[in-house]
Each structure stands twice: as structure tokens, then as C-alpha cells.
Amino acid sequence: MLKWIYVPTCAHQEVQTYFEKHERPFSEALKARFDDLKKKIVPDMKHGMSSSSQTSEDPLKVNKRCRNQVRDKINQAFSILRRYVQGKQDDGMDQADTLDTLSNDSDSFVDVAEILKRKTYASTIRNKTYQSIKKSKEFLTRIYPQLFEYAVIVGLRPVPAGQGYEPYIIHKFPEIRNYKVSTEGHLYVCTNMVDSNVSVPLFCFPDAADFKPEKNMKSQSYSFVLTNFDGGRVFGYCKRVQVPESRLPEVLCIISPVDASNMYNTLLNEIELKRVKTLELAQELLAASFGRPLPKPGQDVQIRCLDEIGEMETIHLNRPSDARLENVQYDCLLPYLGTDKLIKVFSSLLLERRIILCSNNLSCLTQAIHAIVALLYPFHWQHIYIPILPAAMLDVCCSPTPYLIGILTSHLNQVLDMPLDEVVIVDLDKKNIIQTVGDESTILPKKIIKALKMAINMCKLDIEAERSQSLMISEAFLRVFVETVGHYGEFITTQQDNKRIFLKENFISKVESHGLQQFLEWFTETQMFEVFITNHLEKRDWGTVDIFMSRVMEYRDGSGPSTERPGIGTKVKNFGKAIKSKLA
User: Fold this and answer.
1) Could you tell me which residues come within 8 angstroms of residue 330 by beta carbon, excluding any fewer than 6 positions away?
2) CATH 3.30.450.200 occupies which residues in the chain?
3) Does domain 148-325 match CATH 3.40.50.10490?
């Protein structure tokens, strides 16, 4: 008699595949028994609880269990790498699996001349951008007495004696703030009121020339980032809305020196509710918001204003402790790029190259670029960053410095005709990399790539992982930095003069894997690594890397979720062996 065995979520399909592969009859009676078992197990796998207790369980406990499950899978994927680097053997791993995982490891070794070329490139970029990075730190430490720099409501109007539309400012608050963007993408203060905001409306409507009115248009949220001459970044948060009195949409735009998308998007949602009623209500909320001080990271601010019937209402806004991990939709990356292409784009970012992403959808473009940059945590992208580039500024793509730029697909052919050297171009809509440098598969060590692929692909194994796909992706890429640079703290030392220094050469040689050593030789020359280490030497930004530091401690102490529990792959394999032995 066939005994009942624990069946994971995907086991039913595995069993059916097994029978088909070996051309064995899968009787209706046996199939019915598996179907019945699946009905009993799947709800528990999906929700982790019985239906009677589902509504009463604490959501915080559910989230904690979900995080632990994800981190267990990450540990399983990277355990092979960790055992290999430490020179340990896993008795529970099949020999074939070990050989497959570690085969072709010599491919991790890159030609010495190529490593030297990457080191030279990274150090050259770092030296060119040092002053602007130094200035940008000053902007981060400033205290702002108002919630934002200024806000505009931008509309569309037909181009005189021509086709298409052009953006124009319907309302601006306050009027004394005057900015303009140069053709190089830099922001500067204007002295002439007539020139005020000549370029910012183009970022609000980058598709103005090709815009076609739509019926029942849904609201879209997107953003843009500009860099001024002093190295400080200015962020633009946009909400495109359809107003009842016009067939053309308007864009509500907030300009701020602070990266806090969730806080400002919450405010834009409130402004949208006012704007669809009357323009005056939206203007009143903008005025009331501007007068409130910008909260410190992790704190709240309250905005009080009158509603349409004259009653006072309060709006609560929260500024996150670390905006890099806020409101990031990592799960959008796999549908747009897939695993292999995502790793190639991530690798190009690590080498601080020029990258262009294109799409027809503004929200898609903003979400994807924001998520890709967030994968660099705990590091910062230190260079040109423009999620949406207007058609009038496409010449910025010819910049010799590193950048991450988003363009509309309608502008792609124009960009491809430009003299672009070593630029990675990705079409998100077609899920295709149009142009590459050619060495993207060798930027990361092969062992890291294999472990990263295994971790990402675990999202597709069962329903529980699929529901946690965003967390799975963020934790997988964070683990890459834990594995490669997590030991940096051992090599920060204090000299006799109380000056803290970083022993870079000792840091690199500490790693046993030659492939990882080659990676660190050039990565330690990048601007993002230099800023990261400098912040720690100067004891800055400690609060913004708490998650990274906790993962490093878990990695060292083994205090994280257990890595010894059998994973879904082991369960499926054991289940298949059990069935085979019963029916042999």
C-alpha cells in the first residue's frame, strides 16, 4: 500500500512530470488521491495557517515568518558559495550537483589586462567626480525650513501653427523660486523671471510632442532627478491627473532637494483629490504644505487645511529613515528584464557605466529605474540619474560620464543615431538588451552569478516565494554585498593620531577566492565604494545601513533563519525518490 507522504506545493506537477518522463501509467485513482492531498496542503502552504486561525493571526507575525522564509531560501542559494570559499564540503549534496555548481569556475578569472583596465576606468571616474560628491554631502546636512522648494501645476496646449502639444505652467507656488535646466542637465537659479521653469515643464510632459488624448485616463506617478552645478540633486515628483473641465491632463509637480518619494507622493495624492474638485482647493493645499518644515528622517509632519465645506482637516506625512529602500517595487524587474538581463544591468551599474532604459510607459520607466538603483544598497549611485529624459535634452545621452537615464521608446531611434560609446541600452517593453559593451557576464565572479540566479529563480518554485518576490529580489542582491564586502569593518583601524583609515589591500587579500579578489581590485576603486568607506571612516550615515549591518552580523554569527532545514528542492527530490521506490 502506498503511504501518505508530505507533498510540497509544486510536488503534484513534479510527480506528473516524472510519470510522463518514464512513460508509466498515472492511474486515475492515484491521481485523485494526490489531488485530494493537494487541496489539503496548498491552503496551508499559501497562508501558513488554518482557515479558522487566518483572520486572528497578527499581521506582524505573518510578515516576520515571510521574511524568515525568504532569508532561508537566500541562505540555501548562497550556501554553496560560502562552503566553497571556506573550503568546506557538504556531505548532503550530490556529487553531480557539486560538480555542476563549481564547474567552469576558471571562467571567473578575468584577464589581468582587463582587470587593470577596469581599475583605471573606475579610478578615473572617481577622481573626476570627487568635488561634486563632496558638495552633495553638504546638501544632505542642510536643514530646510519648508516642505519643498516649489510646486507647479503644468498643463498642455496645442503648438501654434504646428502638430502636437507643448507644456505650460498653470500655477506655481511660490513665485519667487526660479530655476532652469541647462542642455547638459544641470539646474541653476535664474535671474530673469521670464526664464523661470523653462525646462521643468518638459520633465512633467516628456511626451508632449507625441501626446494623444485618451478617454478615461488613469493617474500616473513618476519622478525625475536633476543635478545642479554644485553637485546637489533636485528631485521632481509628478502626478499626471485628468481634470473634469478639460480633455487634456495636468501634472502636479513638487520640486524638492530631498529624496522621499513616498512622502511626496502621499501629498500629491491629497492634492489630486483637491484638484479634481477645484483648482483653488489644490492651490490652498500647496500653500499650506509649503509652510510646514521638512521633517527629519524617520519623523512625521502634519498639514492642516480647510476642505471644500470649510472644515479643518489634517494630513499626516512621514519621511522614511532611508529613502533608498522606500516604496521600491523590486518585483517589476523580473517581468521587464528576466534573471539574466537583470544581473547584466546590475553588473554594469557596479562598474559605473552609462545605461539607458526605454519604455512607452512613464510609470514603468520610473519604477524600474528606481528599483535598479535600490539594488545597489548599501551603496549609492553617485552619477547622473534621470529617470525620464525629455526629447529636448536627448543630447545628455552623449555625456562621457556615467549615467542612468530613462527615455521614451518613441525617442529610441534618435538616441541610437547618436555617437554613443560603451553604453548599455535596454528596451523594457520588449524585454531586450539592445546594446551592450560585451563583457557584462564577466563583471561579477561566476560563483556569485550562479548563487544569485539560484536565489532569484527560487521565486518561481512555489506560491509562498512568488508572493514574496519583491523581498526575495532585494535580499538576494543585498546578500551579494554581504558576501563580497561584508568583512570591510575588520580593516578600518585607528592610527596613533586618532585618524581612522581603511586598509584596502588587506581587505582584498582577505578573500580566499581569486575570482572575488579580482572583483574587489576594481570595485574598491569605484566612486560608490569610496563614498561608502568615507562615510564609515567619518562615522556618517550609520542609520542608513542598519539593514546591511544586521545581515552581515547574521552571516557571521549564523544567527539568522536556519539554513539546515530542507528546502523545496530537497523535498521534491525526496518525494520523487519515494514514489520511484514504491512503484519500481
Assistant:
1) 371, 374, 375, 469, 470, 471, 473, 474
2) 148-325
3) no
CA 272 to CA 279: how far, in whole Å? Answer: 10
Report the alpha-carbon angle 94-100-106, nearest 5.
135
Roughly what angle, to the nearest 10 degrees, separates helices 514-523 and 469-485? 90
Contact call for residues 568 and 8 (beta carbons, < 8 A):
yes
pLDDT at 41 over 50: no
Residue ranges, CATH 3.40.50.11500, the chain: 328-443
Residue 251: DSSP 8-state: E
The backbone torsions φ and ψ at residue 192, rounded to the nearest 5 degrees and listed phi first, read -110, 125
**Strand 354-359 relative to strand 403-408, pairing:** parallel
Spell out the residues 6+ positions from residue 541 whose beta carbon is closer than 8 angstroms to its own.
535
Chain mean position to CA 584: 49
Query: Residue 206: pLDDT above 70?
Result: yes
**DSSP state string for 307-334:** -TTS-EEEEEEE--S-GGGSS--GGGHH
488 contacts: CB under 8 Å, gap ≥ 6: 502, 507, 533, 536
Confidence of residue 270 (pLDDT cuts 50, 70, 90): very high
**pLDDT tens by residue, 407-423:** 999 999 999 999 998 89
Distance CA 122, CA 525 (A): 5
Task: Determine contact, residues 5/578, Cβ cutoff 8 Å.
Answer: yes
pLDDT above 90: residue 231 = no
CA distances from residue 521 to 81, 110, 510, 524, 525 in whole angstroms, order as listed: 20, 12, 12, 6, 7
| Among 2, 8, 9, residue whose Cα is nearest residue 26 | 2
Reported as a single tens digit per residue, the pLDDT across 362-387 is 888 989 999 999 999 999 898 888 88
Q: Are 428 and 365 in contact (CB under 8 A)?
A: yes
Does a cis peptide bond (omega within 30 degrees of 0) precede residue 378? yes
Q: Which of helix, strand or coil describes residue 340?
A: helix
Angle at Cα 392 formed by Cα 387 and Cα 397, nearest 5°? 55
What average pLDDT is seen over the chain? 75
Cα–Cα distance between 337 and 343 in angstroms, integer?
9
Cβ-Cβ contacts under 8 Å for 584 (sequence gap 6 or more) = none
Torsion of CA 143, 145, 146, 149, to 10 degrees: -60
Q: Which amino acid is at 364?
A: C
Residue type, 417: D
Dmax (CA) for the chain in angstroms is 89
> At CA 351, angle to CA 349 and CA 345, rounded to 5?
35
As a whole number of angstroms, the distance between CA 280 and CA 269 comes to 16
Contact predicate 365/357, CB 8 Å: yes
Residue type, 92: G
160 backbone φψ class: left, alpha, beta (φ>0; ψ -120 to 50): beta
Distance CA 548, CA 479 (A): 9
Which three cell numbers, joined as nine digits, stand for 476? 538576494
Contact 548, 535 (CB under 8 A): no
Overall average pLDDT of the 316-323 stretch: 80
Would you give the DSSP letter of residue 268? H
Domain 328-443 class, CATH top level: alpha beta
Cis link prior to 206 (omega < 30° from 0)?
A: no
pTM (global) more than 0.70:
yes
